[in-house]
Amino acid sequence: MSGSSSLYALAGIALFCMGLFALIAYPHSLRKILAANVAGTGVFMIFVALGYQGPERPIDPVPHALVITGIVVAVCATGLALTLAVGLGATHIAPDEEE
Amino acid sequence: MIHLVDVTLVVTLLACAWLSLTGRDLLRSVVLFIAFGLLVSLGWARLRAPDVALAEAAVGSGLTGALLLSAFSAMERARLTTDEVGLTRARWLALGLTLGLGVSLGVVLLSLPSDHPRLSLHIQERISQSGVLNSVTAVLLNFRSYDTLLEMVVLLASLVGIWAVAPFARVWPKAPSTPILAALARLLLPLMTVVAGYLLWLGADAPGGAFQAGAVLGGMGVLWVAASLWHPPWALRMVRPLLVLGLLAFLAVAGVTMGIGKSMLEYPASQAKTLILWIETAATVSIGVTLTLLFLGGYPAPPEQS
Predict the structure, then answer these.
(1) Helix, strand, or coil (residue B237)
(2) CA A74 from chain center: how many Å?
(3) Could you tell me which chain A residue has the CA closest to the CA of B99?
(4) Pairing with B30, which of A15, B13, B179, B248 sits 20 to 30 Å away (CA)?
């Protein structure tokens, strides 16, 4: 690993960890969905960065294809998760209204 | 060699992600997330992944943003949009643990060999047999086409899941609130149709393809719904056939290739490009319709009057 490839790969790890932390730490369902998306983007970034080895070498298109598939699957999962979260919200009482 | 632009981009997108995940105001978080998606697509462009950049800008940032905003407004009506973000002791512990995980992952990653050609050489060898010149399209629709076949199933399954839990749409075309939006939509919809067709056709030889074109169609559907344009009564009856079109085209080709004694989805070399383009066309329509229906957030029926 060298150069900007490792810069982006490390950024991917940072994004994954941020997403994982927010997913664990914060209770709001919308924020958990955001967090899962950020973590997923981190994984995509590691993948694509591994396929890039500098401006003059050929790129590896397999991670690109996997990531495109992943992006579309992620938006579907997000749509399903948001529908579930909104449905939960309809039956759930916000903490500050309980008192 | 690391360019300043890469460092700036990485720092900005990490800051965007962190502020989005830890800010108290959820609307601000959503907007920052959309900005984050656009920055990430610039990152893909810097990593010479233009196909991924197109998909990210259209789907990862655009459509996910539209979904998040519509869910946010539904939650705002239910007054569920504040969150406690202070760092308690348990959160410090979680932060410490994820930090440790990040450092160990980083050490592993930096120890990977840097000059391994991975699969790029194999792809370059075989690209002439794939029927297309764009290596990403070749991987998606030829070398690993069963991945894409299964992805069409995932798209369908997610929508079935949404329909199962939400019997009414969350967003539904109403009377247009502003003539400007309707006029803009009338101007943009034909243009977006052309762009989608162009991306689809271009995908054989240059960055583009079924997913990017489908995402543009999905964006068009979202605009259509948001601008509350007229929809003919038969449009809803067309939804189901269009949803499964991509999957059926894939399965038909899979069946035929197995029927003529090849392995599943192994195209005859002379017909490869034709087959790929037919599958892509069907998949584009299905992806576009699926993404539009995701935005409705429920079974395509008007919401209950309450």
Answers:
(1) helix
(2) 8
(3) A17
(4) B179
d(CA B136, CA B48): 12
d(CA B304, CA B297): 14
Residue-wise over B283-304: b if at least 16 C-beta within 10 A, else e?
A: bbbbbbbbbbbbbbbbebeebe
From first to last of its 306 residues, chain B has per-residue pLDDT tens of: 788 999 999 999 999 999 999 888 888 999 999 999 999 999 999 998 999 999 998 888 889 999 999 888 888 776 666 667 777 888 889 899 999 999 999 999 888 876 676 777 788 888 888 888 888 888 888 888 888 899 999 999 999 999 998 888 888 877 666 788 888 888 999 999 999 999 999 888 888 888 899 999 998 988 888 887 766 677 778 888 999 999 999 999 999 888 888 888 888 878 888 888 899 999 999 999 999 999 988 888 877 655
Judging contacts by C-beta atoms under 8 Å, the chain B residues touching residue A66 are: 147
Alpha helices in chain B (DSSP H): 4-22, 26-46, 50-55, 64-77, 89-110, 120-130, 135-138, 145-165, 179-202, 210-226, 234-259, 272-296
Contacts of A11 in chain B (CB under 8 A): 10, 13-14, 43
Q: How many alpha carbons lie under 13 Å from residue B209 in its C-beta half-sphere?
A: 30
Q: Which sequence spans correspond to the domains of chain B?
A: 1-85, 119-306
Of A24, A58, A82, the CB nearest to B71: A82
Decide if B49 and A26 are in contact by the 8 Å CB cutoff: no
Q: What secondary structure letter does DSSP report for A72? A: H
Contact B120 A37 (CB under 8 A): no
B281 CB-side CA count, 13 A: 8
A77 contacts B67? CB cut-off 8 A: no
B124–chain A Cβ distance below 8 A for any pair: yes
Contact B79, A94 (CB under 8 A): yes
Domains of chain A, earliest start first:
3-92 (1.10.287)
The Cα–Cα gap between B132 and A58 comes to 17
